[in-house]
Amino acid sequence: MWARHTPVVAASALATALACMVPRAPEPVLPPPPPAPRASLERAAVVRVAESLVGAPYRAGGATPRGFDCSGLVVYTYSRAGVPDLPRSAEHLERISAPVDLAELLPGDLLFFRLDGGKTSHVGIYVGERSFVHAPSRGKRVERIDFDHVYWGPRLTHAGRILD
């Protein structure tokens, strides 16, 4: 009986041995992930710098950690993140930024506010999660606050983008 199955068993064993000896295709080598676009790195840096300045005092005309006004905070933050030479007023920052819908905000975008009358008079830096960092007013400190805040929400007019 064993003799009748020997050729079948031998053929099966040979097929298995040959299959094991066939070289396998090498595992594909995946390329490293592409580097983050420069704008993404700058945005992350803007947020990091802005959030590190929370608690700094407000100072009219200030543009250093010893004291900031709203546009001074933006100019200082962007400069530290590698984006120098921004204009030094909320109104001028508004002019050079590309309009962006509030539903499409990215961290690092600017939020513009009208506090008194028809022109933009305040600016903050969007940092994500519907919040922004800004230098609010005399006697206060740089803060992170929700842009739906009872005071700031109704005064938020639009957003602008400096970084592509």
Describe the model.
There is one protein chain. The chain is of the alpha+beta class and 164 residues long. It has a single domain, classed as endopeptidase fold (from Nostoc punctiforme). 32% of the residues lie in helices and 20% in strands. The chain is built from four helices and eight strands, in the order ααββααββββββ. It has helices spanning 2-21, 38-52, 70-80, 90-96, and strands spanning 63-64, 67-68, 98-100, 110-113, 122-128, 131-134, 143-146, 156-161. The strands form two sheets. Strands 3-8-4-5-6-7 form a six-stranded antiparallel β-sheet, covered by helices on one side. α2 (38-52) crosses α3. The N and C termini lie far apart (80 Å).
Structure characteristics:
single chain, alpha+beta, endopeptidase fold (from Nostoc punctiforme), six-stranded antiparallel sheet, two-stranded antiparallel sheet, 4 helices, 8 strands, 32% helix, 20% strand
